[in-house]
Amino acid sequence: MRTKNVILLFLALLLAVAPLGLKQGAEFAGADGQAEEVITQVQPGYEPWLDSFWEPPSGEIESLLFALQAALGAGFIGYFLGFWKAKKDTARGS
Questions:
Q1: Residue range 29-85, pLDDT digits in tens
Q2: Burial class, 8, CB count within 10 angstroms (exposed 0-12 / middle 13-18 / buried 19+)
Q3: Which helix (H) or strand (E) element contains residue 29?
Q4: Within a 13 Å sphere around the CA of 80, how many CA atoms are in the beta-carbon half?
Q5: Containing domain of residue 86, as a range?
Q6: How far apart are the first and last CA of the chain?
Q7: Sign of the torsion formed by the C-alpha atoms of 63, 65, 68 and 73
Q8: Cα–Cα distance between 31 and 79 in angstroms, integer?
Q9: With bands split at pLDDT 50, 70 and 90, how would you rate the model's confidence at 28?
Q10: How far apart are CA 25 and CA 2, in angstroms?
């Protein structure tokens, strides 16, 4: 059991680090910027329907809010899966 966990941890780390080493000097950009580029190429006169009602004061705060959103989502999913598993185990009598 312990060996399986070590192998899974190694694979997870490999998946996280491999993209950084595969493209040396690559610039990683968000999907929003890439989508905007493609839209302006396809239709140069495009005007967005809506604008942001609040722009974060800095990129760091924007990153913080994104990380917070991801953490809350992961926490919610983890809680739901744990609750579901515990409920299933209780029903089995384990």
A1: 677 778 888 998 999 888 888 888 888 888 889 889 999 999 999 999 999 999 999
A2: exposed
A3: none
A4: 6
A5: 57-94
A6: 20
A7: negative
A8: 29
A9: low
A10: 37
Residue 67 domain-assigned (yes or no): yes
Q: Which two tokens stand for residue 81?
A: 């899966």
Q: How many domains are contained in the chain?
A: 1
Alpha helices in the chain (DSSP H): 2-22, 31-42, 59-92
- 12 in any annotated domain: no
- Look at residues 52, 16, 48 and name the one whose alpha carbon lies nearest to residue 35: 48
Residue 2 in tokens: 């312990």
The pLDDT value recorded for residue 43 is: 92
**Does 32 fall in a domain?**
no
The Cα 15–Cα 74 span in angstroms is: 18
What global pTM score does this model have?
A: 0.51
For 53, which DSSP code? S
